[in-house]
Design goal:
It is a single chain. This protein is mostly helical. It has one domain. It has 6 helices and 2 strands, in the order αααββααα. A two-stranded antiparallel ribbon has the order 1-2. Strand 1 and strand 2 form a beta hairpin. Helix 1 packs antiparallel against helix 2, helix 1 packs parallel to helix 6 and helix 2 runs antiparallel to helix 6. The longest helix is centred in the first third of the chain and has 15 residues. The protein is globular and about 35 Å long. The relative contact order is 0.20.
């Protein structure tokens, strides 16, 4: 069983957001989960991901989004083929999480990700 670091879990949440419908409500949901999960470390985590080039701020909405480098990073750790289509990415995430029994250290991030990739579970938070 592989375990994702907190940074990887945060990046995976951005990855999932990247492939769901981009609405104001979906961005609010993501921000809420991030702030609740990271609490005082929210800004620090955002800056670390920015410095590594894994997320950046889009000028259109002034919000953080995963970069191409971030997508490649997640594709690599979840063994998702780079040629898979964007429409199938969440199905591949679901399959990888279940196949490799990937563990999360943060239940709120896990619940957010599981909800959007279609994994049914008993909520633990």
């Amino acid at each position: 069983m592989a375990k994702l670091t907190l940074k990887e879990q945060v990046l995976l949440a951005y990855y999932v957001y990247n492939f769901i419908e981009d609405t104001e409500q979906s961005m609010k949901d993501l921000e809420h989960v991030m702030r609740a999960s990271l609490q005082d470390n929210y800004t620090k985590a955002e800056e670390e991901l920015k410095q590594e080039g894994l997320v950046n701020q889009k000028p259109e909405d002034d919000k953080e989004h995963i970069t191409n480098e971030g997508v490649i990073y997640i594709d690599n750790i979840l063994h998702i083929q780079s040629e898979s289509t964007d429409g199938n990415k969440l199905a591949y995430v679901k399959d990888s999480l279940l196949t490799y029994e990937i563990a999360f250290t943060d239940d709120q991030l896990k619940n957010y990700i599981y909800k959007h990739v279609g994994i049914d579970q008993v909520t633990t938070s």
